[in-house]
Amino acid sequence: MATISCSLMMFNLLIITSTVAQGVGVNWGTLASHPLPPPKVVKLLKSNNINKVKLFDANSDVLQALFGSNIAVTVAIPNSMLKSFNSSKKAADSWVHDNVTRYMSNGGSATRIEYVAVGDEPFLKSYGEQFHPFLIGAAMNIQAALKRAKLDSKVKVVVPCSFDSFELGTNSTSEVHFRPGLNKTMIELLTFLDKHGSPFFVTIAPFLTPLQTKNISLDFFLFKETVRPHNFSHKTYKNSFDLSYDTVVTALSAAGFPNMDIVVAKIGWPTDGAANASSNLAETFMKGLLNHLHSNLGTPLRSHKPPLETYILSLLDEDQRSIASGNFERHWGVFTFDGQAKYRVDLGQGPKSLVNAQNVEYLSSKWCVVNNNKNLSNATASALDACANADCTALSPGGSCFNISWPSNISYAFNSYYQQHDQRVESCDFSGLGLITTVDPSMEHCRFPIEIRTSHADSHRVCNFPWTMSLLATTLLALVGWHR
Ligand SMILES: *[C@@H]1O[C@H](CO)[C@@H](O)[C@H](O)[C@H]1NC(C)=O
Ligand SMILES: *[C@@H]1O[C@H](CO)[C@@H](O)[C@H](O)[C@H]1NC(C)=O
Ligand SMILES: *[C@@H]1O[C@H](CO)[C@@H](O)[C@H](O)[C@H]1NC(C)=O
Ligand SMILES: *[C@@H]1O[C@H](CO)[C@@H](O)[C@H](O)[C@H]1NC(C)=O
Ligand SMILES: *[C@@H]1O[C@H](CO)[C@@H](O)[C@H](O)[C@H]1NC(C)=O
Ligand SMILES: *[C@@H]1O[C@H](CO)[C@@H](O)[C@H](O)[C@H]1NC(C)=O
Ligand SMILES: *[C@@H]1O[C@H](CO)[C@@H](O)[C@H](O)[C@H]1NC(C)=O
Ligand SMILES: *[C@@H]1O[C@H](CO)[C@@H](O)[C@H](O)[C@H]1NC(C)=O
Ligand SMILES: *[C@@H]1O[C@H](CO)[C@@H](O)[C@H](O)[C@H]1NC(C)=O
Ligand SMILES: *[C@@H]1O[C@H](CO)[C@@H](O)[C@H](O)[C@H]1NC(C)=O
Ligand SMILES: *[C@@H]1O[C@H](CO)[C@@H](O)[C@H](O)[C@H]1NC(C)=O
Q1: Which GO terms describe its biological process (predicted)?
Q2: What is the C-alpha separation between 331 and 333, in angstroms, rounded?
């Protein structure tokens, strides 16, 4: 098993990747109870010609799986670590050594780390100002650590910013500024990025907008040609992407950085857990977005200059993402949690369908449902308990399982809990109301999932890193010899 995975990785290294859509990548988050094993995810990326990923941490299993894949990688420092990197150059040095340098030895061809993201949307309004005081110091210390490691020409320091960093002027239709309280930090950040030639990373969140803004038609978000245009800053907009992007351009220009490169760090459309979160709309949105990016038209303010890079949110569904901002948060994936494509879109693989993850190993074909022969007067309370720990987002209004009737919705909750707890018998008890079955209770629109098998032997240490390195060295030497 291990040998096969590693040999395939070696093989990947030797394939010269065909040219694909410039600058489109995916966010790869791992907040899942049963994540698809990293080597399978890397195969999924390769088989769909996806050549850029943005991570939310620097997980060693993930970085090892990306070794030799030729996929460009953004590693990230969580917000919780910003404080220590602001106060300690030493901490920054060891983070860079352990999470960047280690993977990039061998002339930088080992794991292609291109960016270190310092924090993840640290300016998000809901965080208050807790990260503001540490951000610039942390970014500077990481930059200095990269320089000491002689990696600063290959690896750029960036800070992914949330779209709520910006506000429209109260007074005009053309004025944009940073949120009050953010001005000083943002100017410092832009000065820092400018000095080091780093782009501005920003989230563009069209899906969140219609929930808040009335009177904008869904078509405006879906790149429909027939839409009623909106005017902003003396320009006319036919889709929300251009409008959001030029909002960012306007704010950067007003701050004195009119030519700063922009990377769209997160953009996507969820498929479940809310009204208008569906695979159909997500497909329309993604096709519209990718056609627009491929057209190279740019936006009214940056004509023929599309974003430097764009990272789709997200590669896979994650059943442990926070649902503070909505139940759709666990359904951003272009692929389901187990790597099955939800719709058709060209991420780099061309006109053919997306390739699904192969040889996914699942838990047994067993589900936990409610026992209809029992007195179910307390079942709803048990289901709510289950949902507090498991993932019931598909049951929410607009979700794929919203209209299944009682007590099927109780079964859905029981099953989610049971699967998340590795199908342990005691996790299908529910005071005697649970029943384990081998008959799939899924309905046409509502899937009762079985989780992925994630035994330690399967998901961890598939590949021993130093061993891979020496194998790589041997292979390269053999190749050199062979060419002579
Ligand atoms: C950030 O680090 C600098 C340099 O060590 C220190 O002077 C400053 O007080 C730190 N900021 C905070 C808010 O701790
Ligand atoms: C990265 O480096 C730090 C400091 O050496 C270490 O504590 C941490 O576990 C490493 N891994 C990740 C994923 O941050
Ligand atoms: C609002 O607009 C008026 C006229 O365009 C201008 O004189 C005024 O300074 C603006 N106020 C603010 C707060 O931008
Ligand atoms: C933000 O900072 C810039 C530069 O320091 C300044 O010109 C501008 O007036 C500030 N804007 C606000 C709203 O404070
Ligand atoms: C979903 O889209 C419809 C239009 O198709 C709109 O009327 C409705 O308000 C949207 N719902 C949400 C929650 O955005
Ligand atoms: C909403 O849009 C319609 C056109 O579709 C327009 O007539 C109406 O004035 C708008 N309402 C508001 C409050 O902007
Ligand atoms: C938007 O601008 C165009 C051209 O500048 C103008 O013809 C149109 O009437 C404007 N639309 C609105 C709703 O202001
Ligand atoms: C179910 O249990 C409740 C008490 O929890 C009781 O009131 C009800 O009569 C029982 N129903 C049946 C059909 O036994
Ligand atoms: C329902 O729960 C209550 C309180 O825990 C308990 O007294 C009652 O016996 C339960 N009913 C059934 C049918 O289990
Ligand atoms: C549930 O909703 C889907 C899609 O809206 C619909 O096709 C299906 O028939 C509904 N099922 C039931 C049982 O109402
Ligand atoms: C299941 O459906 C019933 C009836 O519609 C509802 O009262 C209950 O809250 C639902 N339970 C869950 C877990 O969605």
Answers
A1: carbohydrate metabolic process; defense response
A2: 6
CA atoms of 442 and 444, how far apart (whole Å): 7
Retrieve residue 12's tokens.
Answer: 């990947």
Helix ranges, 149-231 (H): 183-195, 208-212, 218-221
pLDDT of residue 437: 98
CB 481 within 8 A of CB 22: no
CA distance 283 to 269: 8
- CATH class label, 2-331: alpha beta
- Alpha-carbon distance 91 to 138, whole Å? 10
Distance CA 287, CA 360 (A): 27
Positions of E strands within 176-270:
176-178, 200-203, 230-232, 235-237, 262-267
Give me the active site residues, please. 121
Mean pLDDT confidence for 266-279: 96
Buried/exposed 19-40: b ≥16 CB within 10 Å, e otherwise: ebbebbbbbbbbebbbbbbbbb
Spatial neighbors of 154 by CB under 8 A, at least 6 apart, are: 104, 108, 113, 114
Q: DSSP string covering 287-298, please?
A: HHHHHHHHHT-B
Summarize pLDDT for 166-224 with one digit per residue, the tens: 988 766 667 888 998 999 999 999 999 999 999 999 999 888 765 556 678 889 999 99
Domain ranges of the chain: 2-331, 367-451
- Helix, strand, or coil (residue 358): coil
CA of 78 from ligand 2 middle (Å) equals 11
Residue nearest ligand 9's atom 5 by CA: 378
Q: What is the DSSP string of 72-111?
A: EEEEEE-GGGHHHHHH-HHHHHHHHIIIIIHHHTTTTTSS
Do 427 and 390 contact (CB within 8 A), yes or no? no
What size, in residues, is the chain?
484
Q: Ligand 1 in contact with 143 (CB < 6 A)?
A: no
Q: How far apart are CA 188 and CA 73, in angstroms?
A: 26
Question: Which token pair is 232?
Answer: 């902003």
Instruction: Share the mean pLDDT of the chain.
Output: 88
Q: Does pTM top 0.85 for this prediction? A: yes
Give the span between the Cα atoms of 382 and 415, in whole angstroms.
12
Which listed ligand is nearest to 400 at the C-alpha? 10
3-state secondary structure of 123: coil
Whether the CB of 215 sits within 6 Å of ligand 6:
yes
Number of alpha helices (DSSP H) and beta strands (DSSP E) in the chain: 16, 14
- At position 8, the amino acid (one-letter code) is L
